[in-house]
Amino acid sequence: MTHRPLEEPLRPVRPHPAEASWHRPPEPDEVDPAVLSALLHRHGWERRGGAAGRYGRWTPPGPGGSGTSLLVPESRAFPDSDDLLGEALVALTRSGTPSAREVLVGLAVPSDEIRWWRDAPSGPADSAPWVVEEQLRASARRMLLAGALATRARAGYYGARHRRAAAALLESVLVGSAAGGGRLTAFVPVGTGRTLAVRLHQALYAAREAIDYQRATGGMDAFDGAVEAGVSRELTDALIALVRGTEGARIAVEWAPAAGVPEDCVAGVEPVEFSPGDLPVLREAGARYLRAEPSVPVRITGTVVRMRRSGPRGEGSVRLRVIAGAEVPHLRITLDEEDYRIAGHAHLVGLPVRLHGRLESQGGFRRLTGASGVAPVQVEEAERDRLMKSLQENLDWFEEACSGEDDD
Fold first, then answer.
1. Which tens digit of pLDDT belongs to each residue from 91-131?
2. Per residue in 310-353, pLDDT tens?
């Protein structure tokens, strides 16, 4: 039995709320001067003087930055504050500096920023092979998904559980452009994703502490307690993908200045670092989580979407689309002859079924074992009509299944 690869494609990510209008700067009266200054500082702009107590002069990072500058008021206490803010916002919009766009996104929608750095060999003029940037983006997405899963429940291994809800949490996240294949930033809106940023922040530090404990003592016990902080096999796999093939990697979470620092977190902490020497421990921890995650007793309600058995009688295999009872989209179940017949009849008349069993970690929590008590469930007429329409669209394979032919 194989486990579902963590990198299995998920639904396409929707644009960040700021994406459609980031090129249009916010109105000056919508901008807090202190927030703008904090974002400029975060993204590498340098303050080079200005009238003390009135405004600061900021220049962009990198070579040639001294040719451009912004005058940003320190407060709204002076009559020209709105004028200065308006000029600064227009200048940011017209700037070709990548950090200018990141500042505008942070102003448009207050977002916590998650940053990744990979110390990998680069090509001429800081270029990077295509595969290097793909690896960074893929591992960053896996890490965000692991953090989103941890907001749903605490588990050492999730498999297929909670993936729809976790993927939905990523829909408002905007990922910026990679710089040279070695750096990437994700903007996580405070309104919809702060729990994700907080959980990932805590999980990364817990993983780092558990690795240090293992390397100092040889014991893996710290990884058991780290589950409560959000560490899981999905996170260890994401860290392995991030670090593999590099000299090291770092991750930092920086809080939105407009929203402040969340409870139980601190500002200005150093990025969490991982090195190739951590890989054996991360692999061992992932295997430990996979072995230790127990099966779960569940009461499932679902609709039959596929049936198969080798002959006209005896037990058969059923695939259910889960409606309630488990945070997975589909389940595979083996039913005895009587329960298989009940499931078939329920499907023919457009009804879901309800049954009991144990959700097994083997196979990624996609299989229900010990299934029993299959019974049809009454539903509203509109839902029943929809189920009947689905049956008619798939009638050919269903007739083959009921007659004992193999649908594969």
1. 888 887 778 888 888 888 889 999 999 987 666 655 666 67
2. 888 888 999 999 999 999 999 999 999 999 999 999 888 888 99
Residue 126's contacts (CB-CB under 8 Å, 6 or more residues apart) are 180
pLDDT-derived band at 198, boundaries 50, 70, 90: very high
If you count them, how many residues does the chain have? Answer: 408
Can you tell me the distance from the alpha carbon of 215 to that of 188, in angstroms, rounded to the nearest whole number? 33
Strand partners, 217: none
Categorise residue 236: left if φ over 0, alpha if ψ from -120 to 50, beta otherwise: alpha
**Domain boundaries, given as residue ranges, for the chain:** 19-108, 111-292, 296-402
CB atoms within 10 A of CB 141: 21
Separation of alpha carbons 321 and 8, rounded Å: 19
* Rounded Cα distance, 112 and 258, in Å: 10
The CA angle 368-370-372, to the nearest 5 degrees, is 100
Which CATH superfamily, name and number, covers 296-402? DNA polymerase B, N domain, beta-barrel (2.40.50.590)
